[in-house]
Amino acid sequence: MTSKELTEASRAWERNHIKLEKRWQKKIKRAMDVNLNNFIDYARKNSITSAVKVIDTLMDAKPISDVLKQLYLSVGMAQAVKIKKAVEADSKKSLFDEFLSTMADSLAQFFLTFAITDFIYKILASQKRRTLIILKQLMEEANGGQPVLPSIPDDLITPEQLISEIEDLDRGHQKEIQILKSLYVAASDRGTGAIARTEVTRALNFASFTAAGNLPIYVDKTWICCLDKRVRRAHKNIPWDHREPHGQTVPLEEAYIVSGERLMYPADPAASASNVIGCRCGQTFAARRDANGRVIRKPTGTSVTVILPNNQPTLPTITI
């Protein structure tokens, strides 16, 4: 790609990403608010102590799972169709057979294999941890700044430890009522932006990567980043740099090298969390051509395998 084409691709990607991120952050927030409101409502009826004791019951994975499933299928399918049209135009002929059906299966496979077992439960664990930390902070404010569990780091506080401190507040006391009112305000928006940003990026890039892999021609891919001040750059002790690979072009079946790690696509879950969380990068695709400028087709009968993180084998197709 020329420098001008690369810049245009980056700007188009960023505009689309911003629109999707805003749309899905609202949906993710509503889903996570289901858990937070369950916790607050139960605490109002039974006391904060009782709510903390059953936090694992009050906060479950279903609301988050439902909205992320919608995200992957909606964002992923739209992106797959876009890549289909782009590569079709580049190769000057239609190259697809049962394209949408194949993509739906691939997206469902990815979601069920990784989102259910990894992403969603990390998000849920983070929401529970943040709720307990904010609850501790609000208890300290309600008690005139008196420290709560000062010898224990916030990330290591358990529900059991916090319960012993909560029991010092009288049940039904005005302090407890005020804490619950403040909890929603303080905890509702926490983390939803990063979740939406990361999962939109992952859905877009996995879908486009898989769509390109399902073509009967060979394809090259090019990494693009959002050309703004927010793009991550290496500095001090932080090695992650997403501006450096901008414009890096490799065969579809090979990995990008990003800050020393191998990523099949931006936000690849096989990479370090610090290298992909909050990533907004994308990729463009072009038909691979021979020395005479002709599109290079795969041998007839070539099978297509969806490449999943950590080299895990593709599971049987699952319909959701």
Work out the strand percent.
Answer: 5-15%
**Uncertain runs:** 311-320
Straight-line distance between termini: 38 Å
Number of helices: 9
Strand order of the largest sheet: 2-1-5
- Biggest β-sheet strands, sense, barrel: 3 strands, antiparallel
Helix fraction?
55-70%
Dominant shape = elongated
What Rg is obtained from the alpha carbons, in whole angstroms?
Answer: 23 Å
Structural class: mainly alpha
- Elements, N to C (H/E): HHHHHHHHEEEEHE
Mean pLDDT: 82
Annotation, overall tally of beta strands: 5
Organism: Chitinophaga pinensis (strain ATCC 43595 / DSM 2588 / LMG 13176 / NBRC 15968 / NCIMB 11800 / UQM 2034)
Protein name: Phage head morphogenesis domain-containing protein
Question: How does this structure look, described?
Answer:
The chain has 320 residues and is mainly α. It has a domain at 3-216. 55% of the residues lie in helices and 7% in strands. The protein has helices at 3-46, 48-53, 55-58, 62-91, 99-142, 159-166, 174-187, 192-213, 273-276; strands at residues 219-224, 249-251, 256-258, 261-263, 282-287. The strands form two sheets. It has a three-stranded antiparallel beta sheet. A hairpin with a 2-residue loop joins β3 (256-258) and β4 (261-263). The model is unreliable at 311-320 (pLDDT under 50).
Question: Could you list some keywords that capture this structure?
Answer:
mainly alpha; three-stranded antiparallel sheet; 55% helix; elongated; disordered C terminus; Phage head morphogenesis domain-containing protein
